[in-house]
Specification:
Blueprint (H helix, E strand, L loop, with lengths): L4 E4 L10 H9 L2 E4 L3 E5 L2 H5 L10 E4 L2 H13 L9 E4 L2 H6 L11 E3 L8 H6 L5 E6 L5 H8 L4 E11 L12 E4 L2 H10 L9 E5 L1 H9 L6 E3 L7 H15 L1
Parallel strand pairs: 1-2, 1-9, 4-5, 4-7, 5-6, 7-8, 9-10, 10-11
Antiparallel strand pairs: 3-8
Helix pairs in contact: 7-8
Length: 249
């Protein structure tokens, strides 16, 4: 069966430019976007159970805009006034600029890398003696704390929000030619929202090793897996699958 309809379990890309839009136009596809997971914040009482005091830290490591939002939300809920001396280490420039929503942007206190915490290695070396807080969700990419430990960064992880299954009850079914997932939580949401889901001819695409494992662990068939050396992005992997399918006809 050819692929004509695709459901991507993420929010629709902002703006007019996206590899998904190009893919849809090139192969006459119907691509819909719908987040299968959502984020909800821990309340102050849940946060305090971790025995983390925000006042103990002189710097914050921020890995997403969501982390920024929940750090300042938790500061407000626990009545902690974030000092002007706080230093912010962001994994990307976009996250650094997003901080303007909460603080006056001063480059001497806000630092950023290109995309990963590894990019911040030299900055961490220049700022020895800081005590770093890592605001995160209950699900954090394992590589982040591993990299920080390798760099011998003195950090404390604090869960401030959690990832939960989104309510998909308004969807009658998930009858698409392909479903695209980016996290194990997305697979869990699929099974929670549609406990009688039968894969049949539906192709499942997964990004990342843990997502692929979740597909298999739930007795589903993995049809598309990225990243791979020849297909580093999900859209490239989907395109390769479409082209390979046409060759088999």
């Amino acid at each position: 069966m050819s692929v004509k309809t695709i459901l991507v379990s993420q929010p629709k890309p902002e703006g007019d430019k996206s590899p998904y839009f190009d893919l849809a136009e090139k192969y006459k596809l119907k691509i819909d976007f719908r987040p299968f997971i959502q984020v909800e914040g821990l309340n102050a009482q849940e946060f305090r159970l971790q025995r983390v005091q925000l006042s103990d830290f002189s710097a914050v490591i921020l890995t997403s805009k969501t982390a920024v939002d929940h750090y300042f939300r938790m500061a407000e809920e626990t009545r902690f006034t974030v000092p002007d001396t706080m230093k912010y280490f962001c994994v990307s420039e976009a996250i650094a600029y997003y901080l303007q929503k909460y603080v006056q942007y001063r480059k001497r206190k806000i630092f950023f890398g290109k995309q990963t915490v590894q990019d911040l290695a030299d900055l961490f070396k220049k700022h020895k003696g800081e005590k770093y807080l890592l605001p995160s969700s209950d699900i954090l990419r394992e590589q982040i704390p591993v990299d920080l430990e390798k760099m011998k960064v003195p950090f404390t992880r604090a869960n401030m929000y959690r990832t939960v299954a989104a309510d998909l009850s308004d969807l009658d079914d998930v009858k698409y030619d392909m479903l695209v997932f980016f996290s194990p939580s997305g697979i869990e949401s699929l099974m929670k929202n549609f406990p009688t889901f039968k894969q049949n001819e539906t192709r499942i695409a997964a990004f990342g090793a843990t997502t692929a494992k979740a597909v298999i662990d739930n007795s589903l068939r993995l049809d598309v897996h990225a990243p791979q050396p020849e297909t580093p992005s999900m859209t490239m992997a989907i395109e390769k699958y479409i082209l390979d399918s046409k060759k088999k006809k």
